[in-house]
Write a structure and sequence with these properties.
The structure is a single chain. By secondary structure, the chain is of the alpha+beta class. 48% of the residues lie in helices and 7% in strands. The protein is built from 21 helices and eight strands. The chain has helices spanning 4-14, 19-37, 45-54, 72-85, 99-110, 116-137, 140-143, 148-151, 153-165, 169-180, 194-214, 230-234, 253-257, 270-283, 313-316, 320-330, 340-343, 346-351, 410-421, 428-438, 448-453, and strands at 61-62, 69-70, 91-92, 258-259, 290-297, 355-359, 381-387, 392-397. A four-stranded mixed sheet has the order 6-5-7-8, with helices on one face. Strands 1-2 form a two-stranded antiparallel ribbon. A hairpin with a 6-residue loop joins β1 (61-62) and β2. α2 packs across α6, α4 (72-85) runs antiparallel to α5 (99-110) and α6 packs antiparallel against α9 (153-165). It is globular. The model has no long low-confidence stretch (mean pLDDT 95).
């Protein structure tokens, strides 16, 4: 197909976001900023902030939840990494990507003086481009080992920044060309600090691509559709560029809507975790009386859950066995559940051999999208538990907690925001003020006013 890149750029320059879409986006933005604020207390913070200091960059861009200011590129890198550090940021059913931390970090770092309304609209445009690109390239991109948040998220950052800065379509096409040579992220790094770095790297590269294009740097302007362009290299014969014709006709933030996480770990574990908590209550499970826990998922669901015997908090986020063990032990989940100390508890490690997880084709029955959906959203899951005194029970879970079918309420968002922000050195009054200003951000004339509240 011809002129795809140009048509995407034209959509970005002329997009008009409806109010009902803006209203839905506001909730996701508040959730995302809350999650970014949890980053300074995560494992990645110490080495990442040390790296940022060593760059000796001057600038007024704020690293959220800290007292540091730096260049927009470094701030986007750090804030983006913070946003994915706990695996607590959003997703969407259409594709295995986490768009918001990339886009929000790029916008807050590189366009801090726009209005709150323009920030929301730029964010919506960025998400629209990210998700439609991810949907168009197809699920095989993920199956081949790419991490779409890194490889495709950079285009969302470019789209959001181009809208916020009101770039002309040709400059936006050039920025896309630059971004196409900056795409990266492989799944082997899941469970390490480099996985969230994919998010920060995409945000940082989006900022760089837009700044270079604006300064007159050249790049191919047909990079999406060209013979040796992005889709030719990263996609396959099943990729469908025509899906990009739907940009702005059915806004993805409205339909199907974003999924906001209840738990700070891989989304593929969330339904099993809900089932386990139900069984714990029904059977009064304890570490002592739990004989066995078995979990069955649709084929492909365990692709990202690669640590059956985790040794760190980061590995625990990608261990279904540990998530189920923690549910038996604690009867619930918090940010602490996925720390090194929690994962290495002797009673948690002792439970792991009694927990078995496996893929079962039966769990895909009735799901026509089981082969094309991301691993967290396929079919249904079943969790079985048995006790040493002969009792047993099963739960089947279809709906993903936090998905549009079981959405987080504003009360849920507030609790999550306060939980994340409380890990910073912000005092409780400042956190409360931050939250109240964020939920009314559409009335803000200059986003810098809000950013100043997010700094210690």
């Amino acid at each position: 197909m011809n002129n795809i890149t140009k048509r995407v750029a034209s959509f970005i320059s002329s997009a008009t976001v409806p109010q009902f879409v803006r209203d839905k986006a506001r909730k996701v933005l508040v959730d995302t900023i809350g999650v970014i604020l949890s980053g300074p207390a995560s494992e990645v913070a110490s080495p990442l902030l040390e790296y940022a200091k060593r760059q000796k960059c001057t600038g007024s861009a704020v690293i959220l939840g800290t007292s540091f200011t730096t260049s927009s590129e470094i701030a986007a890198l750090v804030n983006g990494t913070f946003g994915h550090a706990l695996d607590f940021d959003d997703g969407i059913v259409l594709a295995p990507v986490h768009p918001s931390s990339v886009i929000v970090s790029a916008l807050l770092s590189a366009t801090p003086n726009i209005s709150g309304r323009r920030l929301i609209d730029a964010y919506v445009v960025g998400v629209e481009v990210t998700v439609k690109l991810a949907e168009a390239i197809g699920i095989d991109h993920y199956h081949r080992g790419w991490h779409g948040t890194g490889t495709i998220g950079v285009f969302g950052a470019v789209a959001a920044l181009a809208y916020a800065k009101q770039l002309d379509p040709l400059t936006t096409c050039t920025a896309f060309g630059l971004a196409s040579s900056m795409t990266s992220g492989v799944q082997r790094n899941f469970g390490t600090m480099t996985k969230p770095l994919h998010t920060g790297w995409a945000a940082r590269n989006g900022v760089v691509a837009v700044e270079l294009a604006s300064a007159g740097f050249s790049a191919a302007t047909d990079v999406l559709e060209a013979e040796n362009g992005f889709f030719a290299v990263y996609g396959n014969e099943q990729s469908n560029l025509s899906l990009l014709d739907d940009l702005g006709k059915r806004w993805v933030i409205d339909e199907p809507g974003m999924s906001l996480k209840r738990y700070a770990c891989c989304y593929a574990s969330h339904r099993p975790m809900v089932g386990l908590l139900d069984l714990r209550q029904e059977l009064d499970l304890t570490p002592e009386n739990t004989l066995a826990v078995k979990c069955y998922l649709a084929p492909g669901s365990l692709r990202a859950l690669i640590y059956p015997r985790p040794k760190t908090g980061l590995e625990g986020k990608f261990s279904l066995e540990y998530a189920l063990a923690a549910g038996v032990l604690d009867g619930g989940y918090s940010l602490w559940s996925f720390t090194d100390a929690a994962v290495m508890r002797s009673d948690a490690q002792a439970l792991l051999p009694r927990i078995e997880v496996s893929e079962d084709p039966r769990c895909a029955i009735g799901d026509p999208y089981a082969k094309t959906r991301g691993p967290s959203r396929r079919g249904f899951v079943e969790v079985h538990a048995s006790t040493t005194d002969g009792r047993n029970a099963m739960r089947r879970i279809n709906i993903i907690p936090g998905s549009p079918d079981q959405a987080l309420t504003w009360d849920d968002i507030r609790r999550k925001f306060m939980d994340c922000a409380s890990t910073t050195q912000l005092d409780i009054e400042q956190i409360q003020k931050c939250y109240e200003r964020l939920i009314t951000m559409e009335t803000c004339n200059n986003v810098q006013e809000i950013i100043s509240l997010l700094r210690t």
